[in-house]
Amino acid sequence: MINNKAKYSNFIKAEAKRLGFLSCGISKAGFLEEEAPRLEKWLNNNMNGQMQYMENHFDKRLDPTKLVEDSKSVISLLLNYYPAEEQNSNSFKISKYAYGADYHFVIKDKLKSLLHVIQDEIGEVHGRAFVDSAPVLDKAWAAKSGLGWIGKHSNLLTQQVGSFYFIAELIIDLDLEYDSVTTDHCGTCTACIDACPTQAITEPYVVDGSKCISYFTIELKENIPTEFKGKMDNWMFGCDVCQDVCPWNRFSKPHNEPLFNPHPDLLEMTRKDWEEVTQETFSKVFQKSAVKRTKFSGLKRNIDFLKT
């Protein structure tokens, strides 16, 4: 049986690579003991702001066996989104992950393909695919699966490729060979803490979500608090500051997923273009992008806040 576990695990990792994933790690499905008190404290301190959904399904968030019946393994996968080119420097900025097609759809398709290949090769395996859309602690599982460590900015980091990648999971009812955790390589570096425009990283490894630029520009439905005027660093959707300054991201390499390539107009648009943006341009440039989540009215609100 041990040989089968190793054989199946190697097969799954090889298939993940074939489908374009950056890396794949596997861990035993079970209760996340270390994460439970951290998550509870974070929620008790209201660091989720108006993201009420973070309070839902607390038990499922910490235990995948409550999400997927009889689950035995969490397969964590990384998919690179680092772009070959960035926006015009004289522009309001959007987070690099939203340059191209909405990652939820791109990754979900790859995960379904992986699950089908597993079923074809191994037999009756049941499971579910997750892409940032269910109560799964992606970063905790990726770290547990040896894919990297959680940095002081609370993102997953790897020595080889930094942090510009999406994290997704397949949770399945098959016993596999499990990977071991890697060590933390942040050392004494505080680049992300020092650079955060809104001081959202309140202490190493703790981000107050209610002060994060990504929260203001995407999640917050009301007006952005006036106390953050002049502190948004020209970000109109998301924010990459803590990743941009991280020394490990010197090793980021451009992705090779055509669906993540931006609409050509996006890279050329200037501040003036954004200030005059119309619903028509918004729909054209962000036709398949995650930016649609904030809607035209939300993006306009963000741009107006940056202008004044």
UniProtKB/TrEMBL annotation:
One Pfam family recorded for the sequence: QueG_DUF1730
Active-site residue numbers: 132
GO molecular function: 4 iron, 4 sulfur cluster binding; cobalamin binding; epoxyqueuosine reductase activity; metal ion binding
Keyword Ribonucleoprotein assigned: no
Residue sites binding [4Fe-4S] cluster 1 per the record: 186, 189, 192, 246
Cofactor: cob(II)alamin; [4Fe-4S] cluster
Chain residues that bind [4Fe-4S] cluster 2: 196, 212, 239, 242
Residue runs in coiled coils: none
Pathway involvement of the protein, from the record: tRNA modification; tRNA-queuosine biosynthesis
Subunit description: Monomer.
Family: Belongs to the QueG family.
Protein name from the UniProt record: Epoxyqueuosine reductase
Organism the protein comes from: Algibacter pectinivorans
Gene name in the database record: queG
